Amino acid sequence: MYHPTTRVLTVLELLQARPGLSGAAIAAQLEVDRRTVRRYITMLQDLGIPIETTRGPHGGYRLRPGFKLPPLMLADDEALAITLSLIATERQGLSIDPLATTGARAKIERVLPESLRERLQAVREVVAFHAAPPVSRPDGATLMRLSLAAQRGERVLLRYRSGEEETERCVDPYGLVFHSERWYLAAWCHVREGVRVFRLDRVQAAEQMAERFTRPAGFDSLTFVLERLALTPWGWDVEVLLEATLEDVQRWIPPGSVILEEVPEGVLLRGQYDQLERLATQLLLLECPLVVRQPPELRAALRAVAERALAISER
After folding, report:
1. Burial of 99 (0-12, 13-18, 19+ CB in 10 A)
2. Residue 187 CA: distances (Å) to CA of 112, 197, 308
C-alpha cells in the first residue's frame, strides 16, 4: 500500500525509469484507478514537471527529453515552512553562520519551480522579524561534532575558556540547548565529577575520544540548563510563594530566569536576581497574592515600585 504523497513521487520514479509507461501500468503499480493517475500527472505538471502524453493504444506518459529532475521536490507548504525557518534562523540569531543560512536558502530556491520560487521570494521580502541582539556565535564544526558525540555516546576532550582561564577537560556530552541567543552544552565533567553547563562560544576546541559513555535515562538537557542558569549565583537569593497556577505564572516569567515549582499552596519561585525592582515589577504583573520568603529587601522593592506607580497616576 502507498501513502498518497508517496504515490505522486513514485509516478516520477516510474517515468524516469520507464519512459512511455501507460496509465494502466502506473495504476496497477500504485493500486489506484486510471482517473487517479491522471490527477497525479496533473499535480506534477502544476509543479512544473514537463510530462508529455501520447494518446492511442500504445500511448503513455514520459518526461520531456533532456529534462533532469531537480534533486529536491517540495510542495508549496513544505517550501514555505523551510523558507520561513531559514529566515527566522538568520534574523533571530540562531544561525551559526548567517552566510551559510543565506546560501542554503538560495540553493533551495534555485531548484524550485519558477512560480513557487517567485511566491517564496515575495514572502522573504515582506515578512519582518524582530532582529535579535548580536551575540558570540560558536563554531559550526564544533556544534556538529558535539551533536554527533552526544548521539553516539562518545567522550570529548574540550579546551574551554572561562574569563582569562583556559582549561582542558574530558566531558560526556548529554545534549545541546539554544536559549536567549546563546548555545549551551550539558555534559558530565570528569574534572568536576558532575553535570555542568558549558557555553559553546567559549569552547576553543573539541576532540572526540575513543572512550564511550551512556547518557542517564530520562535526562532532560533543556530543563537542566534552564535550572542551572536560574540558580547561577549573581545576585539576591530569591524565594517567593505565588498563589496562582503554574500555567499563569509561566506566561509572565521567562524560562531560565527562575525555577518554578508547583506546591500545595500554589507556585514556589526560586532563583537569583541582581535587580530586585525588576523582579518586583514582574511579580505585580501577575496580579496574584504572594508571600515574600526572602530576601526582605524584595518587600521594600515592591513598595518602591508601588509608590512610583501611585506618584505617576496622580500627576
Report:
1. exposed
2. 41, 7, 45
Alpha-carbon distances of 151 from 146, 147, 223, rounded to whole Å: 9, 6, 18
27 to 20, 36, 44, 138, 314: CA distances (angstroms): 14, 8, 16, 52, 79
Give the pTM: 0.62
* Residues 170-191 pLDDT 10s: 999 999 998 877 899 999 999 9
Return the CATH number of 140-218, one of 2.40.30, 3.30.960, 2.30.30, 3.40.1360: 2.30.30
At the topology level, CATH places domain 231-313 in Alpha-Beta Plaits (3.30.70)
CATH number for region 4-63: 1.10.10.10
For 143-167, the pLDDT digits (tens) are 889 999 999 999 999 999 987 889 9
